[in-house]
């Protein structure tokens, strides 16, 4: 079980690495004084600050509400016991106080037994923190040492096979980054539209709810539904017309996202047909839950790239031109490649005794 958990962490780190790899390459190639170590540090600091900003966005309102609740709790408890206020009226109508007095012993036993779930929750929180730190460290080292590892690995293969591996790796990288950028774009659209609807009706904490909806929308299949439930409940607390409008909005938007946004965006970024996407999502969700749903589309895209290359190779079809992702990496490594046993000419590896053609 622990081995499976570590493998999952490594898989997430690989996806994270592929997502940040182009940004580090771009910064290294466009800023002369920026070495790869500094470029990697800058990109990861930006990511950490972004995560910190999102957590702060959630933590500050929650802390304020918690402080208000703690200050008002004595009066709320007194009103509830006296049958006053909304809580007291609710308790009187449901006869909750009489039930609590009649079952005081059972309630005490139940409260005593809450220690075990609380301990499990604490362990899960610690595991989550360790997982986050481990994923960041693995991804950081992978991005930092990526070029050396790639060049060292390709040096073990003959030139033609090394070229093929480089090309397939570039296509896989393009697929994963395409999925991530497409998913972020769809989630941003969902968050902005949600914010507009909530703001029109004056729902409190519209910004916070919109950010949560955008983050939840990153999860395929269930993300939009989860965001709709949270936004709908928040709108219902504010007013009934706002809740009805929010529910209608999410029903319409879900159809728009499923039948227009996702097919158009993912067909251009990941190049997977809708049937493949649906089957991959269902299988991955059944096997690995929410994590499987998150990784289903990029993994399916990578498998498609590898199978397509095998088919082209066996059928004798000409290889495709290396992708722009790997072209950028080739340009970044050009100086080192000219002094290595192999050289690059027109996107193709040359053997040591082969002369470039004009």
Automatic annotation (TrEMBL):
GO terms for biological process: transmembrane transport. Coiled coil: none annotated. InterPro entries: AI-2E-like. It comes from Lentzea alba. The chain crosses the membrane at residues 6-27, 39-60, 121-143, 184-202, 208-229, 236-256, 276-307. This is AI-2E family transporter. It comes from the Bacteria. Keywords: Cell membrane, Membrane, Transmembrane, Transmembrane helix, Transport. It is a multi-pass membrane protein. It is found in: Cell membrane. Pfam families: AI-2E_transport. Belongs to the autoinducer-2 exporter (AI-2E) (TC 2.A.86) family. One of its GO terms (cellular component) is plasma membrane.
